[in-house]
Amino acid sequence: MGAFDGKVVLVIGGTRGIGAAISRRMVADGACLGIIYRSRVGDAEGLADELRSQGKTVVLIQADVSNVAALNRAMDEIIDALGRLDVLVSVAGTAIVGPLESYADDAFDQILAVNVRAPFFAAKKAALVMTNGGRIIILGSIVADRMPGAGGTLYFASKAALGGMIRGLARDLGSRAITANLVQPGPIDTERNPANGPDASINRSPLAIPRHGTTEEVAGLVAYIASPEAGFVTGATYNIDGGWSA
User: Fold this and answer.
1) For position 192, what pLDDT does the model report?
2) Can you tell me the distance from the alpha carbon of 179 to that of 87, in angstroms, rounded to the nearest whole number?
3) Where would you tag: which of 1, 93, 136, 240 has the fewest CB atoms within 10 A of its CB?
């Protein structure tokens, strides 16, 4: 018996990097899976086929989650297809970085739409359909706690906002035993931040454990928070950062 047998898990941004590792872990632990993704159709369909080959149902929907109407439609399709929703994991995010004077006039709206507004409205939608005891998990970033340098004001601000959101969701949904928690990864070996990339040594310099983390390590933490064993854990922020914040 897997920890998520009979459960439906939705991963927003679940086809690449950390999101793909979470999708794989949830299916390995028995879940039926919904995935919302934005681009790279071939990669998304390849992952879905891989997961379906393990005998589980996977519903794959392409949508721009910065558009609330599109996000709601995608979630409706997945919930209609799978019949319920037990766990929501919001991974999708974007970064706009550079000198302060270089930010376009719409940069603030662009980054907040993906990094803050989308997980809020996804949680709102999920809470309407979840039975008591559901799980809401948002992926943020350790830069919410420690800014390593200049050039990322909007990105840092968007990630810092998630801590307040999680604490509010925990209070709003606690009477239904729906938990809400935040996971803040540090440097993780992904396509966007490879362990052998040009900035890797700089990224590792604040760490107590001098290596990049793996996507599977993050997925393992998410799997615990989503599991029955974590039913008394809510409103919490979990740093998985190799000691970046130590």
Assistant:
1) 87
2) 10
3) 1
Q: 189 Cβ partners below 8 Å, 6+ apart?
A: 195, 212, 213, 214, 215
C-alpha span between 134 and 123 (Å, rounded): 11
Rg (CA), the chain: 17
Q: Is 61 helix (H, G, I), strand (E, B) or coil?
A: strand
Helix (H) or strand (E) holding 23: helix 17-28
Catalytic pick among 37, 155, 224, 238: 155
pLDDT over 70 percentage in the chain: 100
* Residue 155 a catalytic site member: yes
Report pLDDT digits (tens) over 8-23.
999 999 999 999 999 9
Residue type, 186: G
Q: Which residues pair with 11 in a beta bridge?
A: 35, 89
Please choose, from the candidates 35, 33, 29, the residue with its C-alpha nearest in 3D space to the C-alpha of residue 9: 33
In 146-179, which positions are buried (b, 16+ CB within 10 angstroms) versus exposed (e)?
eeeeeebbbbbbbbbbbbebbbebbeebeeeebb
Give the integer Cα–Cα distance in Å for 99 and 83: 47
- Separate counts of helices (H) and strands (E) for the chain: 8, 7
Closest by Cα among 19, 22, 56 to 224: 22
* Nearest-angstrom CA–CA distance, 26 and 11: 9
CA–CA dist 34, 36 (Å, integer): 7
Q: Whole-model pTM above 0.85?
A: yes
- The DSSP call for residue 33 is E
